[in-house]
Amino acid sequence: MATHTLCKTLRLFNYTRGISCHLNLLCINTQRLQYKITPEWNYFDSKKSYSDIPDTGDPPVPKKKKLFVPRITLLSETNEMTVVTLEEAQKLSKRRNLKLVKIVDFDTKSERAIYKLMRMNDFLDAETKSKAEAKEARNRSMKDEKTMTVSSKISENDLGTKIKSINKMLGKKHGVRIIISIDGNKERAVEIADSIIADSKDVAKVATKSSGGLTIKVILRPVLEQTNENTTENSNSSNDDTK
Fold this sequence. Notes:
four-stranded mixed beta sheet; Translation Initiation Factor IF3; alpha/beta; disordered C terminus; Ubiquitin-like (UB roll)
């Protein structure tokens, strides 16, 4: 009887221990499954241990970008060269009561603009000289070419009007191309061409004169003004010849 009771007790003990093992395995699997489904919970939990540690390192200071300030080449009154900013040059000109004048927009050698400090009188003289040179250059340059047609049957009065128009265009520095139609009278066409050339000899020179087919072509170029230097040289040479 005692043996039977002992065996029954052992079986019950093993059964209870098996249930306990199964429950432990079930809890472990449940925890693993929860970790796989929500790993961020474990991540935040693991960070809790570091939240209480104070951060002793200084935050990185962002580097300030340097603004590019263009520099210029500044010439003094005695043509001494310095490299400064435009603002510094303007302050210097105000302090010295001088005029800051741009000489060159961009120098290919130094890759900078060139400015110069000038007295007001010198600046006005230079400006007047540059305007005179520009006007002189315009006087020396020829404008576009005009075309004039004339018939050999034209009357003397109409021819005189045509010649006046030609001389007026030549006086405005225009080149003039004259096309004279022969219209069965070549001698009259040649006379008209010679008359136009003779009446405009003071303001023009003949570039070309040609005849072919039914027309005679005459191209006149205006006499451009000479420079003051050339005029001075010519006057000096004429004075020497007189002596």
